[in-house]
Specification:
about 25% strand; Creatine Amidinohydrolase; about 250 residues; alpha+beta; 5-stranded antiparallel sheet; 4 helices; 3-stranded antiparallel sheet
Amino acid sequence: MITIKSHDEIAKIREAGKIVEEVFAVLEEKAKPGISTLELDHLVLSIAKKHKASCPTIGYGDPPFPAASCISIDTQLVHGIPSAHVHLEEGQIVTFDIVIEKEGWMADAARTFPIGQISEEKERLVQATEQSFWEGFKMAEVGNRVGDVGHAVQTYAEAQGYSVIREFTGHGIGRDMHESPDVPNFGRPKRGPRLQEGMVFCIEPMIAMGSRHVEIQRDGWTVTMQDKMPSAHYENTIAITKDGPKLMTLTI
């Protein structure tokens, strides 16, 4: 069931989203060649604790996810597990997917950052992935449907020559990390649940340079591209209001 949030509840989600913003500001500064992904994960947890918030990815799922953040490098799409043995290298692109819970309300976002100087091909992929989010965001208006959002993401990404991942989607969020509705990054316009004031959900394009096909690794979490080509991910939590969509995890 889709839950409609009140004005006060949306404000609480926004408070969690402000912490997500702070996390990304620190990660963008600290994600340099040589640092381990586990060190970066510890930073995420320390910022959450500073704000008396938590990281609900810890212990989530089966097998339980062991970290405060998902950190995925280059050909890893999502759900990479931070490790003391994995150090960032010049030329990589790295996706951080972060969920923060504050006073029982959650916000979720993802960013793909360059590590040092990256190739023009990777730079174009990262930029196109972010822009595909904004194309979907424009369609997140009261009276439109979930399919309008996904269609906008897909149309833009594929026009740039990229593939759209089908197995993983955006989702509702609030008291729980994953609520209804699912928000695919593909679809047909005028299909799916109608957007109503008070809905809160994540739009999160996951875009690949090569084929869209993925595989899950033996750890039960890390998702990689079958063709070993790079992928990128950009996500924000948004709220549907009568005045248009509002960002919960980004100040512009």
